[in-house]
Automatic annotation (TrEMBL):
UniProt-recorded name of the protein: Murein DD-endopeptidase MepM and murein hydrolase activator NlpD, contain LysM domain
Location of the region described as Disordered in the Swiss-Prot/TrEMBL record: 1-28, 61-141
Coiled-coil positions: none
SUPFAM superfamilies xrefs: Duplicated hybrid motif
Annotated source species: Micromonospora narathiwatensis
A Pfam family reported for this protein in Swiss-Prot or TrEMBL: Peptidase_M23
Keywords: Hydrolase, Membrane, Transmembrane, Transmembrane helix
Composition bias, Basic and acidic residues: 72-87
Length: 272
């Protein structure tokens, strides 16, 4: 559609001669003409749009406009700020983010589990425990000369005379032991009724006498210890049967004392 352009005004050409009854269209196009063209085009567009809208109204009802939430943007910004604060509070704190206190001692960084080398486990070597040494019990200074023997006669009067010792009866050939350590000062049969006998000097003012032995195994001058075998039981001399006649002499030979209290004082109990 062509829109007739309306000039601002009709005027005579200034340079043309003055001809009565004739006008000439002005050739200069101004801004006002341009604006009029643009406005006309806009009016045409609006008219067409109005027709389309009117046509659409007859076809179907217009959709209801959606409600506009004017607070949506504000709520979205608040949710973003809350989410950011939560992430910042749960984020691991790095040493540079925490201000160092003047009095606080800087903690040494703990080694990473992936970089820390495992500590070697100490190897246990089986070591043999030293067995406690069994120390032998000290030997008593005095022992019974014939352990387990039957006492057949004690020290005291017998048959009108002094029986100066204790008789230990065991089977013939039973070993006889030195009652204490000392030196053999007499060994053999002197023909005095004691048969084969042995005297031991204990170097403490006492001597012991072992009579009626069947066999001697020590000699004069031998050093003996307590419990050492010095001979064997018999019935030599004035004896009616095999037995050991045991005496204790105090200070000198033939000064006999009762052996029973003497032995008891040294831890040996005899039934006399």
């Amino acid at each position: 559609m062509k829109v007739p352009v309306q000039e601002d005004s009709f005027s005579q050409n200034e340079n043309a001669p003055d001809t009565p009854g004739r006008h000439r269209l002005r050739t200069r196009t101004g801004r006002r003409g341009t604006y009029l063209v643009i406005g006309a085009v806009a009016l045409v567009g609006l008219g067409l749009g109005g027709v389309s809208v009117a046509t659409a109204d007859h076809r179907a009802p217009a959709p209801t406009p959606a409600a506009v939430d004017f607070d949506a943007q504000a709520r979205a910004e608040a949710a973003a700020r809350a989410d950011r604060s939560v992430r910042e509070s749960t984020a691991p704190v790095t040493p540079s983010a925490v201000p160092a206190s003047p009095s606080a001692t800087p903690a040494s960084p703990s080694p990473s589990p992936t970089t820390a080398s495992p500590k070697p486990r100490p190897t246990k070597t089986a070591t043999a425990q030293p067995k406690p040494k069994k120390t032998a019990a000290p030997k008593p200074a005095w022992v019974i000369p014939m352990a387990g023997a039957e006492i057949t006669s004690c020290y005291g009067p017998r048959w009108g005379t002094l029986h100066a010792g204790i008789d230990f009866a065991m089977p013939n050939g039973t070993p006889i032991h030195a009652a204490a350590a000392g030196t053999v000062v007499k060994a053999g049969d002197a023909g005095d009724g004691y048969g084969n006998s042995v005297f031991i000097d204990h170097n403490n003012g006492y001597l012991t006498h072992y009579a009626h032995q069947s066999r001697l195994i020590v000699s004069v001058g031998d050093k003996v210890t307590a419990g050492q075998v010095i001979g064997y039981e018999g019935a030599t001399g004035d004896a009616t049967g095999p037995h050991l006649h045991f005496e204790v002499h105090q200070g000198a030979m033939w000064n006999q004392i009762d052996p029973a209290p003497f032995l008891r004082a040294r831890g040996i109990d005899v039934a006399c």
